[in-house]
Amino acid sequence: MLELSPAITRQYIDAVAVFDALAEATEEAAQVRGGMYWHAGPASAPESKYLVRTSPAGAETSLGPRTPETQAIYDKFMQRKQASAERLAGLKAALDQQQRLNRALRVGRVDPLVVALLNRMASTHLSEHFRVVGTHALYAYEAAAGVRLEADALATRDIDLLWDTRKRIVFSTQLAKVDSSMLGVLKKVDPTFRIRQSQKYTAVNKDGFEVDIIRRERTDDDPHPIKLSDADEDFWVAQARRASVLLDSPGFSAVIVATNGTMARMNTVHPATFMAFKRWMAGQPDRDPLKRRRDVLQADAVQVLLEQYLPQV
Predict the structure, then answer these.
(1) For residues 230 and 190, what is the distance between their CA atoms, to the nearest angstrom?
(2) Which of 29, 54, 280, 312 has its CA 20 to 30 A from that of 39?
(3) What pLDDT sits at residue 106?
(4) pLDDT digit string, tens, across residues 93-112
């Protein structure tokens, strides 16, 4: 385990501040999406004006005739929209600069594909339905602690996404707004992703990187099996033993940095839950011996992080 240098730590802190500010500005900008304009009155009274609000999809809603009140609504909206656009443009430029500095100082070591996937899920508002579990969660823990774990603990070519079945209706509605399938969301990042025919909860790209989508074991009114969409090719979500423990645990979030300097927020499970779960996995008699040793290595590493670097979480 290696502590980051003061220069890298300062750069990470500065970069995260800009990243979070841009995320906040993006949320604020969503409140002024669309537009407003004054619609001319009928032919019998062309001097009459009506305030119309337009949605991003093109729908229009009349807010009433031109009065001091509607004029104030229009003026406030246009001021907010202009201020929001200027703030977004400035923060995007600042983020580009911070990401270049990240790359120059070698702040990050996460695969850029992982960061791109997380950012795609965030921009489509799907990330709230998933938690990153498994080995990739270690990147969030080490980023928050300001250290780098041993490479052996982080070696993996797949990312595990734990899907929350309790929100499946809301998820389906949101997915339908942004794409026809969850696989389609991944393909926007890398068009070579395909569902493995022998393991349909896994998508793999041309480089052999895998995305696994898992769920808690069936309980209550959970349907089973579950496919994430009606598309011909999409994930069939796999049940994972004791995944409910990971789903119900306190959450943990940190900004991770890729080797190319780009950043994303990773939502995962609390480090203490991760540690306990890995120790449980290592104790299972049917666990592969090679994976068992890595389970212990990862649990020990996270225990050190909690005791020495993250006692406040």
Answers:
(1) 21
(2) 29
(3) 96
(4) 999 999 999 999 999 999 99
Mean pLDDT of 195-223: 93
What span, in angstroms and rounded, lies between the C-alpha atoms of 7 and 264? 21
* Whole-number Cα distances in Å, 196 to 34, 162, 181, 211: 40, 18, 15, 10
Q: Is the pLDDT of residue 260 over 70?
A: yes
At 19, give phi and psi (nearest 5°).
Answer: -55, -45
For residue 224 the two structure tokens come to 């089973």
> What's the pLDDT at 179?
86
The number of angstroms, rounded, from the C-alpha of 152 to the middle of its chain's C-alpha atoms is: 25
> Distance between CA atoms of 258 and 189, rounded to whole angstroms?
15
Q: How far apart are CA 73 and CA 35, in angstroms?
A: 12
Average pLDDT over residues 267-284: 97
- Residue 46: the pLDDT is 67
The whole-model pTM stands at 0.89
* AA letter at 294: R
